UniProtKB/TrEMBL annotation:
<dbReference type="GO" id="GO:0016020">
    <property type="term" value="C:membrane"/>
</dbReference>
<keyword id="KW-0378">Hydrolase</keyword>
<dbReference type="InterPro" id="IPR050266">
    <property type="entry name" value="AB_hydrolase_sf"/>
</dbReference>
<feature type="domain" description="AB hydrolase-1">
    <location>
        <begin position="27"/>
        <end position="251"/>
    </location>
</feature>
<dbReference type="InterPro" id="IPR000073">
    <property type="entry name" value="AB_hydrolase_1"/>
</dbReference>
<protein>
    <submittedName>
        <fullName>Alpha/beta-hydrolase</fullName>
    </submittedName>
</protein>
<dbReference type="InterPro" id="IPR029058">
    <property type="entry name" value="AB_hydrolase_fold"/>
</dbReference>
<dbReference type="GO" id="GO:0016787">
    <property type="term" value="F:hydrolase activity"/>
</dbReference>
<dbReference type="Pfam" id="PF12697">
    <property type="entry name" value="Abhydrolase_6"/>
</dbReference>
Length: 271
């Protein structure tokens, strides 16, 4: 199994799918809180047909390390992990399609904020940009801390094994999820929401019509990001790519094909 070595002994589990010598931009996908890279299984073959597809388990999740220090679980640490993956797999300074679901969608926006020069397009799925109001941020933070307490008390039994979005998942234990909830999940701040108007790359915003918590954030982003396409997927909840895998895949393939077309004038390979 491939692992990326990070500072302080942290190991990030990742997989690379598809061709390595394509001129199309690579795609880097980030899963949500309590999920793993297995989330993307329904889209692996489709998205990797003409692109290098990179999936990984966030620190504290799946097969990646769960460091004992709470200081290792920040948005900044995960963004740095994403950059390190691109640097490992792609040529220096390559641009990629950066996408994710739920917490992974926020991570994608945070990555653009930190490294806009490495992004050629964004895919933000069932997610939001953070909070414009401090009181709403506090509500989110309290909910994240409550999730951490639940994992401390009940362990992995908190996760519903019957959830179709959890097919193929594996976690070593709940310890990393506890710290990820207190760090990365609770750490979503107001820094990203204020920069949506400055996103100058094509952006696809996807949300399930039954994912009530994220319908408004999706509309909020669609009104502020200049070059945006928004899709509300019928008969789909939070795991929209699992509930409606073909609709989601078709939307992403159409989107990245347009991105590929815009980049055909550039010389050289992305990898």
């Amino acid at each position: 199994m491939p692992f990326l070595s990070r500072p302080n002994g942290v190991q990030i589990y990742y997989n690379v799918h598809g061709p390595l010598n394509t001129t199309n931009p690579p795609i880097l996908l980030t899963h949500g809180f309590t999920s793993t890279s297995a989330l993307w299984t329904p889209q692996l073959s489709g998205l990797s047909a003409f692109h290098t597809l990179i999936t990984y388990d966030m620190r504290g999740h799946g097969r990646s390390s769960s460091p004992s220090s709470p200081a290792e679980y920040t948005i900044e640490h995960n963004v740095a992990d994403m950059l390190a993956l691109l640097d490992l797999i792609c040529r220096p300074n390559c641009k990629a399609v950066i996408g994710g679901l739920s917490l992974g969608g926020f991570m994608s926006l945070a990555f653009w904020k930190k490294h806009p020069e490495r992004v050629c397009a964004l895919i933000v799925t069932c997610s939001g940009p953070g909070f414009a109001r401090q009181d709403v941020k506090e509500e989110w933070r309290n909910a994240a801390l409550a999730q951490a307490e639940a994992f401390e008390k009940y362990g992995l039994a908190v996760l519903n094994p019957e959830d179709p979005g959890r097919k193929g998942e594996f976690h070593f234990g709940p310890e990393g999820l506890v710290l990820a909830a207190r760090g990365m999940l609770a750490g979503i701040d107001v820094g990203v929401v204020g920069m949506l108007e400055t996103i100058m790359v094509p952006t696809l915003v996807v949300v399930g019509e039954d994912d009530k918590q994220f319908l408004y954030p999706a509309e909020y982003m669609a009104k502020r990001i200049p070059d945006v396409k928004k899709l509300v997927v019928p008969r789909a909840g939070h795991a929209v790519n699992v509930d409606q895998p073909e609709i989601f895949l078709d939307a992403v393939l159409t989107f990245v094909a347009q991105v590929d077309g815009e980049g055909q004038g550039a010389k050289g390979s992305h990898l």
